[in-house]
Amino acid sequence: MAEMQANRADEDKERRKHWAALLSVFSNSFLIIFKLAVGLFIGSISVISEAIHSGVDLLASFIALFGVKKSAKPADECHPFGHGKLENLSGTVEALLIFVAAGWIMYEAVQKFLEPHVLRLPAWGAGVMLFSALANYLVSRYLFRVGYETESMALQADAWHLRTDVYTSLGVTVGLSAIWLGEAVFPDLALHWIDPAAAIVVAGLILHAAYHLTRESGRDLLDASLPPDEERTIQELVCSFSPDVRGYHGLRTRKSGSQRFVELHLQLDADMSVEQSHNLAEEVSRAIKGYYTESNVTVHVEPCNGNCTEKCLEGCLLEEGTRKQMRQHFKAESGGTPPNDREPDDSVNQ
Q: Which residue, of 102, 161, 200, 221, has the greatest Cβ tally within 10 A?
């Protein structure tokens, strides 16, 4: 029963991710046509640059859709750890595409500075940019919610694309509105430089978003550890099993798409049976999986017999007095001094 509910939850999550990615595709397709038509008609490089930005967003949306669909495939013989990193890969590709779009916009803006021209109907451009900002805000808000709830890096990257488009569209709206109002109040004042200047500001904001996306999506491709707060949570869950769990060490974590991978060594009573130690390791594993539902936990069990090595002292959960008694017992049983015999520092207690 529990397994069926878990499968239904996974199917619902994948369905939400799929529809969110499709919504982004349709939204960007419409905005590209709308912006490009108005931008070419009024001769505004800032509006055309926003159309190009939406074009990059559309390509990013297709990449996100591909990443979401492929990453949902279960593990197979060739990919025993699943396909989750396809989402991270798609996010990285999207970030690189933003860099390309920003470079093109800057190039075109500089050309317009060198060869200024008069805009026709700047109010039209301001109107289409305001509409675009509103549409992208609503879609990006939905993508952020679904992306965070399903831990989809592809959807989060796509949402950042659209949220950046919101800010840049508002910037272009302000620039074109300034030209429109300036022509009405000061008809002899040359204000058309504002249009390429707004395009350069757009490119700067896009570059900032590209850096953020590259850092966030690329770190998991390099198997970076989970964030410190998540590792602390895992450590607290392990510590909650004290005194049955006498210590732990070798905690290693990473993330692939929405799937977390956790490895650690547990130190248990040396006299505990294989069945007892196995059951306790399973309880610890279930506790971590209960908190992070999409996680793969590997637990290695080791005996705790008083031979306190450097690595086991780092995660020791025993009181100092208990450790001393165990060490004395170990000396008596072994007839000698443990190779790492020393008085442990109180700072290792947890």
A: 161
Indicate the fold that domain 228-348 takes in CATH.
Alpha-Beta Plaits (3.30.70)
Q: How far is CA 253 from CA 25, 209, 257, 293, in A?
A: 34, 27, 13, 15
**Helix or strand (DSSP H, E) at 256:** strand 245-256
Side-chain half-sphere CA neighbours of 2 within 13 A: 2
**CB neighbours of 300 closer than 8 A, spacing ≥ 6?**
250, 263, 264, 265, 266
Mean pLDDT, residues 2-12 taken together: 61
Q: Choose among 88, 97, 113: nearest CA to 164.
A: 97
Q: Is the pLDDT of residue 18 over 70?
A: yes
Q: Is the pLDDT of residue 277 over 60?
A: yes
Rg (CA), the chain: 29
Torsion of CA 257, 259, 265, 271, to 10 degrees: -170
Q: Taking residues 162-168, report their average pLDDT.
A: 78
Domain residue limits, the chain: 10-221, 228-348
Tell me how far CA of residue 251 lies from CA of 39, 79, 241, 337, 349, in angstroms: 55, 23, 16, 28, 17
Percent of the chain scored above 70 by pLDDT?
69
312's enclosing H/E stretch is helix 310-314
Read off the pLDDT of residues 280-327 as tens digits, 9 standing for 90 and up. 999 999 999 888 877 889 899 988 876 666 666 667 776 655 555 555
CATH code of 10-221, in short, is 1.20.1510.10
pTM of the model: 0.53
Q: How many residues would you count in the chain? A: 350
